[in-house]
Design brief:
Length: 217
């Protein structure tokens, strides 16, 4: 989807996303983030309304939640207003303008499968992270779903968001092995992951470290 398309979805995004993905999967992703995002300085790319940011931001030293859509960021401002160490800003995930090597962790939920250039996003992640900083990526996936579940998921998306536009060049579905392979190809190390399963949809989860020498260069 384009930036304008995401902006049109901002006001009802949390309700629509939960309807599409299932409340159980949303809760599972939030629990995963709360358990894995380290204390310290965190950057979240593609934060949307801040739905997932609130799961972990309270225990962090600082959180910068970034999104390309100003309407999404406006919603995130409201969502994060009770967490003084969290701030939402408009920024491109491929060129945030933030200093290099200062983030302890970068979080990306449902971002890498929708951007035209996931490799460019991961290049920016490596630039942002300190030596041995942590990437935590989560992406919705049809992996493990039955044909009936896939059809139902498509119906829910159309019901809330209308017909899905043709996939932009570079966009691709990412199952668990695909997400892990993408992260490995971009030079991250100690890559681990697992599939979160829900009644309506599943999510691929990956945690990885940025190489110390690359981050310090």
């Amino acid at each position: 989807m384009t930036k304008d398309a995401w902006s049109r979805l901002a006001a009802a995004y949390d309700t629509d996303h939960t309807f599409i993905a299932g409340a159980d999967l949303v809760d599972a992703v939030r629990e995963h983030l709360a358990a894995t995002v380290p204390r310290g300085r965190v950057v979240e790319l593609g934060c949307g309304t801040g739905l997932y940011t609130t799961a972990y931001a309270g225990h962090c030293e600082q959180v910068l939640a970034l999104d390309l859509s100003s309407d999404m960021v406006e919603m995130a401002h409201c969502t994060l207003s009770a967490i003084p160490q969290a701030e939402a800003r408009v920024a491109d995930a491929t060129a945030t303008g933030l200093p290099s090597g200062e983030a302890d962790a970068v979080v990306a939920v449902n971002l890498l499968h929708v951007v035209p250039d996931a490799k460019a996003v991961l290049t920016e992640v490596r630039r942002l992270l300190r030596p041995n900083g942590v990437l935590i990526a989560v992406d919705a996936t049809g992996q493990g779903l039955s044909a009936r579940q896939m059809i139902a998921a498509g119906w829910r998306i159309i019901r809330r968001w209308g017909p899905v536009p043709p996939r932009a060049k570079g966009q691709r579905d990412l199952d668990q092995p695909g997400l892990e392979a993408l992260v490995l190809q971009e030079g991250f190390e100690s890559v681990t992951g697992h599939l979160l399963t829900g009644r309506r949809m599943n999510a691929a989860c990956v945690q990885a470290l940025t190489p110390a020498l690359a981050a310090a260069a």
